Structure formats: structure tokens, C-alpha cells
Amino acid sequence: MNRNENDIFHVSFSGLLFYLLWKELCSRESPNGIYSEALNMCKEHGQVIDLVGEPMKGFGETTSRGRRRLVSHTEYEVNGEQFMQVKFYISGPKDRATVNVQVKKVFY
Fold first, then answer.
1. Which of 52, 28, 30 has its CA nearest to residue 42?
2. What CA–CA distance (Å, rounded) separates 35 from 39?
3. pLDDT for residue 105
4. pLDDT in single tens digits along all 108 residues of the chain
5. Which of 7, 71, 89, 90 is deepest in the core (most CB within 10 A)?
6. CA distance 74 to 92
7. Residue 64 parent element (H or E)
8. Cis peptide before 55 (omega within 30 of 0)
């Protein structure tokens, strides 16, 4: 491969990597996107605020290194329709809670 072909390969690979990272971290259909949207809904819901208090924080499963970054999720199909279940935790000064979210994938 000459230098020009090598540069094109690196730019293409970098673009693909950026797209995949963006899709996983920022897409509303990814587990992290669903988590972010559901956490915002919890932070705005009066009954949830009354139960756990403010400020409220959300977190996923604890990793082997003690970090709480993994958002637990399961994808499944029922009668030809695709669903995803996301599980995470919230805590505040009053209490803590487990949040289970189920979403149905809508095809446009």
C-alpha cells in the first residue's frame, strides 16, 4: 500500500470507529441512550423525587474494579416485535431504587 492508500484506509477506519462509538453512546436506541432518557424522566417525576430525594444520581452494575458503569440490558423478541429491557439504579439523600425500563423498537 502506498502512502495515499494508507491515509484513506486510516481516515475510513477512524470514521467507522467514530460512528460506532456515537451510535452506542448517543443513540436513543442504545442501552446508554435509553438509560439517559429514563434517568432524566426519573429526575423530573414528582413521585420519584419524593421517594429518593434530590440530588438524584443514576448508575449501572458494579464492575469487577468497583466502578458502576455497566447498564444491564436484554434484547428479546415477542410475536415478531423487538424489545429491550434496561436495568439501572438511582439514589438520593432519602433512599435508593432499581429502575427497570422496557422499550419496543419502532421501525420507520
1. 52
2. 6
3. 82
4. 555 555 555 455 555 555 555 555 445 678 888 888 899 999 999 999 999 999 999 998 877 776 667 789 999 999 998 998 999 999 999 999 999 999 888 764
5. 71
6. 26
7. none
8. yes
- Rounded CA-CA distance 27/62 in Å is 23
d(CA 74, CA 47): 27
* H-assigned helices in 1-108: 3-26, 31-44, 46-52
90 with 38: CB under 8 angstroms?
A: no
- Residue showing cell 495515499: 4
Which DSSP string corresponds to 76-94?
EEETTEEEEEEEEEEE-SS
Alpha-carbon distances of 92 from 51, 55, 58, rounded to whole Å? 9, 6, 9
Cell of 58: 443514576
**Can you give the pTM of this predicted structure?**
0.70
Which one, of 84, 106, 85, 96, lies nearest residue 42 by Cα? 96
